[in-house]
Structures are given as C-alpha cells and as structure tokens.
C-alpha cells in the first residue's frame, strides 16, 4: 500500500458523537494524504474546520498520515458513520454538496396508525443500529415511524417536536436536560431511556402495547369554550367509561375516514394533561362514569367537539 503525503487528506468516518464540553467529535481513519490541524474539512453531509486533532492515544497532534485513526473536533454538525471525508482543497467539492443538502433524504411517508418515535443516541453508531432495529419492529400492530433521529442529549427542541407530532422520545445512553424534562412533564410527552438497546426496544414495545389495553377513563367532548391557547383549553364533556382524574395524562382520539369503502375509525391525534377538573362548578379530584364535567387542559393539539379523551391504565 502506498500514499502521497503531499496531498490533502482523505479517508472515512468511523464514528461520530456529541461531547458536552468540546462539541461535535468524529473518529476517522486517514486513507491518503496528510491531515493537518486547521484544515478545512467536509463530508457529503457536513463541513467544518479541524479545531482539535488527536491521535489514537488521545494526544493532541499537528499532523496525521494514512492508516492513522484520529479524533477531529470542528464539524458544524455530526457526520454520518461510513461517509468519506476530505480535507484542504479536496473539501471544497464535498462542502458544496453539504451546503446544498445533497445528502438529505426525503421524509418517509407516515404509516397509518403509526407509533411516532424521536430517536436520540450517544453516538452515530448506536443511533444507526437503534434505527435499524426500530424500523423492523411491529409493536401491537402499530408500525413505527421515525419522525427524527439525532445524536446527543434530549433537549427542549426534541420535546417541542414530540408535542407537534404526537411522538414518544426514545433516548439511548443519553441525558434529559432539565428544561426538556419540565416541558415534557407539562405536555404529557413520554421519554423512554435506557443504557442497553434491548431494554429501550422492550420499553417501546410495552409503550405501544399500552395503547391497546383497557382504558382507565374515557370522556366524550361535548363542548369547547377556549381554543386560542393549547395550554389552557377549556372543555366540557361526559365520562362514558371509568373515571376521569385530576392531573391525569390522556390521549386525544378523533373519528377519521377509513378511505374508499372503509369504515370510519378513531385515531390518536395528540396528547394532553388535565390541569383542572370541575363538577357542578366545584373543583374535584375525579369524575365518575355517567357524570358531566368541565376541564382545563394542556394539550398538544386543539381539541374538537366529538373528540374522545382517553386515560390509559
């Protein structure tokens, strides 16, 4: 095997991860040329500049030659595992592709009655493996639909996306920051986390199955009094099964067309939580089956007359 040390470096990305202190890190292998501290660098999906260059011992170095593993800090976002990288003059063409979003794939069509999932993982390799496992799942007959996947901790932007898409967040070996946890609790967003991929997959299967067990309480929405603020919707309804409880999280089901010749059926369109519960103009802790009540709710979507609010066991 031969190489030309005078050429700008090129090679492949072995791993990528988000370091809380240093930022985007990529482990690479140099195939040809010389990789230098300060080089412009790019892959087909991202670009950047070598701000930190370390050898396989974790020592800071100025240059690295072929067959050398390296850690690079300086990509604007995380490169994909397996991508080719180029440095110096060779980065220009790949950088143009990254700027134009050439590596982005069109969004997959959402399957009917899907289990929406936002994936988070500690590094790119784990994320790739987890993504493949999730896509092959068929939990409780609900096909998984990955809304988004990224490396790093769960932050408030992940929770906001979960609110708007009705998704569950699955985090592998990562942390949930304080702001994200508070926002998730306020909006009844489920965050599943584990340090073992099998345990995380099992948690998602159990979560999907929970949507098919008997409900603890079902309320039919009879009237809407305030639709301007999702976090302060006022709803009037009747408990048609079980009991409706204060502070309980619920799913919002809505009657949808079954398509050509199909029977109409109810689908989950969002989630929410009971903020205040009243019966006969008095604050109560729960309302029993057959009784009418008023609710102040915080929900991810605007509730409509005719919707069903379901508290799962």
List keywords for this structure.
313 residues; six-stranded antiparallel barrel; six-stranded antiparallel β-barrel; 5 helices; 20 strands; 17% helix
Description:
The chain is an alpha+beta fold and 313 residues long. The strands form four sheets. Strands 1-2-7-5-4-8 form a six-stranded antiparallel barrel. It is elongated. About 2% of the residues have low confidence.
Topology:
Layout: E1 10-19, E2 23-32, E3 35-36, E4 40-42, E5 47-54, E6 63-64, E7 69-75, E8 84-87, H1 91-99, E9 115-121, H2 124-135, E10 144-151, H3 156-165, E11 168-172, H4 178-186, E12 191-194, H5 197-210, E13 215-226, E14 233-245, E15 249-256, E16 265-279, E17 282-283, E18 286-288, E19 292-299, E20 308-312
Helix pairs in contact: 3-4
Please summarize what this structure is.
This protein is α+β, with helices and mostly antiparallel strands and 313 residues long. It is 17% helix and 43% strand.
The proportion of residues in beta strands is 35-45%
Alpha-beta classification: alpha+beta
Query: What share of residues is helical?
Result: 10-25%
Question: N-to-C SSE series?
Answer: EEEEEEEEHEHEHEHEHEEEEEEEE
Number of helices: 5
Largest sheet: 6 strands, antiparallel, barrel
Q: Largest sheet, order of strands side by side?
A: 1-2-7-5-4-8
* Tertiary shape: elongated
Q: How many β-strands, per DSSP?
A: 20
Oligomeric state, counting identical vs distinct chains: single chain
Structural Rg: 25 Å
Mean pLDDT: 85
């Amino acid at each position: 095997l031969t190489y030309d040390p005078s050429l700008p470096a090129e090679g492949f990305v072995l791993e990528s991860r988000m370091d809380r202190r240093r930022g985007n890190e990529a482990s690479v292998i140099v195939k040809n040329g010389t990789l230098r501290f300060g080089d412009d660098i790019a892959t087909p999906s991202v670009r950047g500049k070598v701000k930190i260059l370390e050898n396989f011992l974790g020592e800071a170095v100025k240059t690295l030659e072929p067959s050398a593993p390296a850690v690079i800090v300086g990509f604007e976002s995380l490169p994909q595992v397996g991508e080719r990288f180029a440095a110096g003059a060779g980065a220009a063409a790949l950088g143009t592709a990254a700027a134009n979003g050439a590596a982005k794939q069109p969004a997959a069509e959402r399957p009917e009655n899907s289990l929406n999932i936002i994936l988070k993982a500690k590094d790119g390799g784990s994320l790739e493996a987890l993504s493949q496992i999730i896509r092959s799942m068929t939990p409780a007959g609900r096909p998984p639909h990955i809304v988004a996947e990224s490396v790093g901790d769960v932050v408030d932007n992940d929770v906001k996306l979960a609110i708007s898409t009705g998704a569950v967040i699955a985090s592998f070996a990562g942390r949930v920051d304080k702001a994200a946890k508070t926002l998730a609790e306020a909006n009844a967003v489920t965050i599943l986390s584990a340090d073992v991929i099998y345990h995380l997959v099992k948690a998602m299967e159990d979560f999907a199955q929970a949507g098919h067990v008997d409900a603890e309480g079902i309320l039919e929405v009879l009237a809407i009094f305030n639709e301007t603020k999702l976090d302060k919707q006022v709803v009037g309804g009747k408990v048609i099964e079980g009991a409706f409880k204060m502070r309980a999280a619920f799913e919002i089901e809505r009657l949808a067309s079954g398509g050509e010749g199909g029977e109409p059926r109810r689908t989950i369109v969002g989630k929410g939580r009971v903020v205040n519960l009243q019966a006969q103009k008095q604050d109560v802790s729960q309302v029993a089956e057959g009784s009418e009540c008023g609710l102040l709710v915080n929900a991810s979507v605007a509730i409509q007359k005719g919707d069903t609010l379901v508290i799962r066991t």
